[in-house]
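#struct-queue
[09:14] JT: dropping the first one here, sequence first, then the structure tokens:
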Amino acid sequence: MRNFVIAALVIFLLYTNSTFRSYTLEGLQSITNFIKELPKEEKIEKDTETILESGSSTY
């Protein structure tokens, strides 16, 4: 399914004007950068376990 979406996006971008294409690619790049900056679930769970093991209260 992901490959189909990527292929559709590539075909769509090939047939649009260059200005719209550049704005779309910049937007996709910023979304990609945002996703890369999100914390990973493993790290959050590990931090929670460390806090609980130390005996400190979360309230």
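[09:21] JT: and here's the second one, same format:
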Amino acid sequence: MTDNIISFEDCRLSKRGGTVFGISKDEVVIGSTIAGLEARMKERETVRDYIERMEIGEIMLHPDDGSAQSLLPVAHLLDLLSGYDDLLSREIGRLEYDREMLDLRFDD
């Protein structure tokens, strides 16, 4: 039954004579590295925004049971976000290094 399905994307790409992404292994690696780097940088920006908002008191946690607000969950969440920020920073550094190594390899 699926033999009769026509992919308009496949038709469009065949007219272009290839794919939107490179077909060689090197092109795929470069594209993947750059996309991963951009995603991690955006994610780190979001995490840092949340950390900043929590530190200035813009984001607060209120218990559902109506009891008094505790600072412990906020501190715990800040600690988790800070750890995640560190992890993202290390991952970004690794991806930047990978990108530089790929650039050097193709500059020769």
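[09:30] RK: nice, looked through the second one.
[09:31] RK: DSSP finds three helices and no strands in the chain.
[09:31] JT: good to know. The helical segments are 8-16, 25-55, 71-107.
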